[in-house]
Structure formats: C-alpha cells, structure tokens
Amino acid sequence: MTKVLVVDDEAGISGAVSYALRREGYTVETAADGEEALDRVDSFRPEVMVLDVMMPRLSGYEVCRRLEARPQRPAILLLTVKNDIVDKVLGLELGADDYMTKPFDMRELVARVKALARRGLQTIPGTPNEDRELVRLGELTIHLLNRTVYAGGTLIDLTPKEFDLLALFAEHPGRVYSREALLEQVWDMDFAGGTRTVDMHVQRLRKKLGQWNDVIQTVYGIGYKSAEQQP
C-alpha cells in the first residue's frame, strides 16, 4: 500500500487528514514538526508527504529544501494558510509538487494525494507490465506507464514534476515550449509570475541527468525544447 506522511503541528488537522487517507487504503504516519518529518522520511519512507508550511523547529519550506538534496524523496503536497502567489511559487521552486491553501476541502486533498501517488509509483524492470509504453530521448529510456527513466541501464530518480517535464519533452522532440506553456501543461497554472518555477525544475532535471543533460535545450528568449531525434 502507498505510504503517506502527514506533517502538521495542529493535531486536529493531521488527525482528520490521516483518517480520510486511511479510509482510502493508504498507510499513514504523522509528524508534528519539520525535524520529526525528516526523521520519519528516513524511517517510514513514504511515497507522498502532506506538508504544512508554518511549523515549529523547521518550516515546510526548509523541509523541502533539505529533501531536495537527497537522491530519493517523497512527492510533496504543501499546505499553507497564505494565499499570496509568491508563497506558492516559493514552495514549487523548493521542490514541492503541488500545493493547497487552508482551509481546504478534504475530498480535493485526497484526490491530489491520489494523483501524486499514481505519478510516483515505479515498478522494477523485468516484472509484469511488459507492455508499458516506452519513449526514447537520446540515451534515455522513458517508461511512461510506470514513470521510470533509465540512462545507460541506470535508474534516474526524478520527482513527479521532473518526470512530467521530461516526458513532455520526449513525446514532442524538437518542439519549442515557452515557460508559460510548460507552467500550464505540467503545473496546470497560468500565472506569468511562476515561470521561474519552470527554470528551477529544468535546472534540477539537467543536474540529475548528468552527462545526458543536453537532451533539454534552451531556446533563448522563449523557453525550452528537447533535442530532435536522429533519423
């Protein structure tokens, strides 16, 4: 079963969220502050984390920042009481995959966790599901159905949004995407102020791709594209 870590210093909120997720079949643990959250990530190894921003000891932003440096981390749904677009963009730039503003509808939160869990699921090569769809981009092999990426036989660990970016580029080789178009298609957002989020994710994706990072090319003054496939 998918494991979800709920991190909030308000016991009423973490309890309600945990109850709703357990009813959907998830294995759930909780943490009450940022330091405890990092410890639970190591011991519990969740696939998804519901993370409050305003917490004692370490904020949700700082938790995102520290997890970003790790080779593996859960998909992150950030919760914030702030409704300022700058705060939302900051969370996404620090590695959060999605966000919701308090107060929130529990049904929507559960739906968003389900979406992150689906995007984060990975299967092992050679196991059933051999009919999964493959896309190749240079030396990269991208399994669209189980959301894994291999380069030279080595698995590259990507966050859900990093995978979504790479898959979009791979499925449309040579097509130029503006930052606004990427923001709309990958993040389902349409505000121009968030285009820096795209740049940050492209930078992190290129870093993880290492020697294969040239498959994503910058189109100056416009946005990005993938390298065109050779005939």
TrEMBL record:
The modification 4-aspartylphosphate is found at residue 52. SMART domains: REC, Trans_reg_C. InterPro entries: CheY-like_superfamily, OmpR/PhoB-type_DNA-bd, Sig_transdc_resp-reg_C-effctor, Sig_transdc_resp-reg_receiver, WalR-like, WH-like_DNA-bd_sf. Gene3D superfamilies: 3.40.50.2300, 6.10.250.690, Winged helix-like DNA-binding domain superfamily/Winged helix DNA-binding domain. Keywords: DNA-binding, Phosphoprotein, Transcription, Transcription regulation, Two-component regulatory system. Residues 3-117 form the Response regulatory domain. Residues 132-228 form the OmpR/PhoB-type domain. Residues 132-228 bind DNA. This is Response regulator transcription factor.
